[in-house]
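Hey,
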Amino acid sequence: MYSWGNDTSTWKKPKDYKYDSAKAPYLNDFKKEAEGKGPKSYSSKKGPNLQLVDPLGKNIYTESENPIFFWIDGTGSMAKRPEWTFDRSPLLYQTLVQYRQDVEICFGVIGDAKYDKWPTQVGNIGKGPALDDVLKALHAEGKGGPGIRESYELAAYFMNEHVQTPKAVAPFLFILGDEKFYDQISPEEVKKVFGDKLQGPVDSMQVWKALASKYDLYFLRKNFEGRDEEIITQWKEAVGPQKVIDVPYGSSMEEDRVIDVALGIVAKTWGNYSNFLNNLSARQDSKTIAKVEESIRAAPIVEEVGDMKSKYKGNSGAKKSKLDQQISKNLMVS
């Protein structure tokens, strides 16, 4: 449904929204580049392309002032949500690049290190149709463990130890999931997945709180029937009580609106919410629009750059926060 280029003919009200005309040449280039890559497919392969998404020994560095990191639980309870999310990457990027031209996006997939073959996958940060290369390389195993925990904490560890965004004031970090994370980061798992050496287990909650001081961090939540309360309680402590955001379904109840919610949070933070609402209204019916707006209203959005600079410590890697230094006492990264 969402393709590269400025064609909105498949939208519900295609005449109600036009991409920024000043960006039209870029959008035409995106369309040509994407057509050269062939059709998108995210569910038919048997495993990831580890040449592109293996986290072992990997580091991510970007000088973009506006990077966005998107990690998605790829275990069985998430059903087709990774595929739905990946399919909307053109919508996400092409809308945001109108607001901030240097926006870059990084996608990763989360599994369970105790049960899955590929518990952490992460692509390089990028822009435009090059994102398709990463998304085709990622693989949602659709497995996971028998409890209500997955290895979200390994994604947190990677973001804290292996990502640098020196020019970003408040980079966005979205986690899409439905379960709890493990209480401790295992040295054995870190060695196997990332190649790093730890002196001992690290408290996962500390790492999440360190990330919350560097990133505008949100847990976008799919409900988990019967266990919601304890899952929500853990995530509220980790990322902040207002940063746990419920993701609604559309009126058809066939696909959730995670990209719409994330897109709206970014647009509102950057002062482009009216444009986003025009975009949303051209694509969705009134009931779906109301649900998305309700979720976004729950987010504690900071709209002033000065406030962001005082709130977020940045992630240059040159100087670690006191909490990072405390965490690092238990870390010996090789």
